[in-house]
Amino acid sequence: MNKISLIIRREYLTRIRKKSFIIMSVLGPLIFAAYILIPMYFATLEDKEEKLMVVIDDSGLFTERGPNGPVFIIQGTETLKFQVVEGVPVNTFRETFEESGYYGLLFIPSNILASESSLIYSTNQTSLVISEYLERSMESEIEDLKLASHEIEDIDKILAEVETSINVRNIKWTRDGKTQESNTGVIMGIGYLGGMLIFFFIFFFGSQVMRGVIEEKVSRIIEVIVSSVKPYQLMMGKIVGVGLVGLTQFLIWMLLSAVLVTGLKAVVFPELNQTPTEQVVSSDLFDKGAGVQDMSQPSPEILAGEDMDMAKEIFASLKSISVGMILASFLFYFIFGYLLYASMFAVIGSMVDNETDTQQLIFPVIFPLILGIYVMINAINNPDNALSFWFSIIPFTSPVVMMVRIPFGVPWWQLALSGSLLISTFLGMTWVAAKVYRTGILMYGKKVSYKEVWKWLRYSS
Amino acid sequence: MNLISASEVVKDFSGHRALNHVSMEVPEGSIYGLLGPNGAGKTTLLRIINQITAPDQGSILFEGTPIGQEHRHLIGYLPEERGLYKKMKVGEQALYLAQLKGLSRQEAMKRLKIWFSKFEIEAWWDKKVEELSKGMAQKVQFITTVLHEPKLLIFDEPFSGFDPINVNLLKHEILQMKARGATIIFSTHNMSSVEELCDHITLINESETVLQGEISEVRERYRANKYQLIFQGSEEQLAKGLDSRFELLSMEENGMGQRATIRIKSEKEGSGDLIRNLVEITEIKAFKEILPGMNDIFIQVVNDTNVKKGA
Predict the structure, then answer these.
(1) Are B85 and A460 an interchain contact pair (Cβ–Cβ within 8 Å)?
(2) How many domains, in total, are found in chain A?
(3) Confidence band (pLDDT; 50, 70, 90) for A292?
(4) Residues A356 and A419 both lie in one domain
(5) For residue range B57-74, what is the model confidence (pLDDT) as tens digits?
(6) CATH number of the domain where residue A64 is located
(7) A128 and A199 both lie in a single domain
(8) Residues A248 and A375 in one domain
(9) Which of A136, A142, A459, B233 matches a 20 to 30 Å C-alpha distance to A361?
(10) Does residue A115 fall inside a structural domain?
(11) Which of B 253-292 lie inside 8 A of A, CB atoms?
(12) Whether complex ipTM tops 0.85
């Protein structure tokens, strides 16, 4: 067997047999899902608690006479109830508010029309949801009042006719003249996810390469190995072996996620499996078109189906982006980005005797990668500006930045330039890394600086 | 035929020359000792022969051809700092290292079984290296060094870290390998092992060769014309009868009789002249030349060159 493949085999097998690998493979998608689901779960928990708010309405604009005394005009929600109190100053609540069990006190001053502000008193911070709800409700009440003061006939009817909701749908014309519907949010999400995955992959498995090199140095087996194989073969074998571990992990995650997603889809959106997506999209468009005539009476079915529309739209967008193209470029940047950085991580490993010494050496190496993340976040909103363009061409940041640009569509020449620059930088970097690595692995005891490394570069092989 | 010939090897590290025009001829089938104080450049030379580092000048020939990738399988190397993958199992690791030296998996497995039973360590096969003691790990490493039956074995300080029993085991194995036809180069500080095992030596001091040759010839070169005599008789008898060309250095009582150390003052006289003189005055029981030990030669040569450099 070829020596480099022996090394790859060892690096691969020893790693995927580790307990930590198996645990990460299974738990990875679950942890990922938990990151999303747990905050959502907590959010729903919080809402269950019923809150009672005292209202003192000095303006009188928001109080109606009911059979059981005064009633607040704004309807309470499931978890938020109002109780109007009359003829009591705000300060009477002040001392005993904590014990009273009220969530808060809403004070509407008599001059609300002019001042356009009201106050909420409470012992703890009022939640943003509640303040927004109150603001919105009071705004619309006051707007109604102001409109009513103009004494226009049939005001309600006019308003209903005027009310419009515009849904901007994004239809892309592809080069071959077809139309594609896309959702910018989904495109952003996919690009962002791809870029982040590449970042974490490079960082996580790059450090594994580094740790592997240190392990060989510290255990002193390195000298035996490099008497059997060239240092370059050992370095590349390690980089490829660890990279394959990463790909394996990624594939396991994809498979598990696919199983999870199809499972969820079958449970949550069963009709999606019955109708082909194109039909859903076209019939949906048709519905909307037909709805224009009787817009004044929005059909209750459409309102109820709003969530469903959203889901359909997301799946339609997923379809509109060329999945093959994204996957191919993801794998390309995933692999070559990793290879480029892994050789630098290997060099750092060869420069030190223990892991703690790596701290300051790592920073210059990962700096471009972190910069790439910042540019990527900007590029999501401006995929075609100069910053995004240059950082998606420069090889040290292109794996991360190009990923967010691809779903928006990137000209072929840019992809070719970025890709070939990445490959040639990887080759050059590996050549340089091998020279440094070869010297570094036999150095013990002294702390090595990048200045020293520059000298090693000029040693003969 | 020389298995290895190193000629005019120079190796520079930043601001320091590790080897300065060092040459060495290692005959096939011999045991070659590479001696020298710490930091003299022994390990650097061994690494160059192992193609771990490359020389800045000079060349290494393996059986007359410049050393290259095809020779890696023909060399077994036991570095001074021993080490194995700590988290890997013993058997698996030995198989891996053997395969890196070009053995097939099956062949490696077959040979490992033989060696493991020879060293009585079969029970270690599935243990992780970190569970072994230092001595145990060294045995495993020795096996992985010799398993592919290389033509050339290079041991850097092979006896350090072994207990006396294992040192003997190791010496025995080295002689066995020589008998099999292998060539062995080893560096050491252990001079008694040099006298016991080596056919040739090179002594390196401060990056330069200071002494080189066949061990018997080297000892001959450093002979001090001293002889040991065991005889029946008294000290006065000997002292009185000894010719002025000879000098009595010391005298002691020995179980078998008197033991005397005598030096021949002049280079022109031989041992025959001394014996002729002794026959007349004592009854000789034993007579032999005292050749200097490698230990003495080592210290003498290193000190001499250091003085010369200092001057």
Answers:
(1) no
(2) 2
(3) very low
(4) yes
(5) 999 999 999 998 899 999
(6) 3.40.190.10
(7) no
(8) yes
(9) A459
(10) yes
(11) none
(12) no
Residue-wise pLDDT for B152-194, tens only, equals: 999 998 888 778 888 888 899 899 999 999 999 999 888 888 8
CA atoms of A294 and A301, how far apart (whole Å): 13
H-run or E-run covering A22: helix A19-47
Statement: residue A421 has pLDDT above 50? yes
With cut-offs at 50, 70 and 90, classify the pLDDT of residue A214: very high
Q: Which CATH number fits domain B2-220: 3.40.1000.10, 3.40.50.300, 3.30.70.2580, 3.40.30.10?
A: 3.40.50.300
Q: Does B87 touch chain A (CB under 8 A)?
A: yes
Range of the domain at A77: 50-149
CB contact under 8 A, A442 and B53: yes
Question: In CATH, what number does B224-290 get?
Answer: 3.30.70
- Both A328 and A207 in one domain: the answer is yes
Alpha-carbon span A224 to B143, nearest angstrom: 13
> Residue A298: what pLDDT?
42
Separation CA A76–CA A79 (nearest Å):
8
Average pLDDT of the residues in B90-113: 94
Mean pLDDT of chain A: 79
User: Chain A partners of B82 at a C-beta cutoff of 8 Å?
Assistant: 220
The sheet that has B65-66: what strands, in order across it? B16-27, B2-13, B57-62, B65-66
CB A395 within 8 A of CB A426: yes
A103 domain residue, yes or no: yes
- The shares of helix, strand and coil residues in chain B, as percent rounded to the nearest 5, are 40, 30, 30
Q: Pull the structure tokens for residue A159.
A: 């308003």
Asked whether the beta carbons of B156 and B186 are under 8 A apart, the reply is: yes
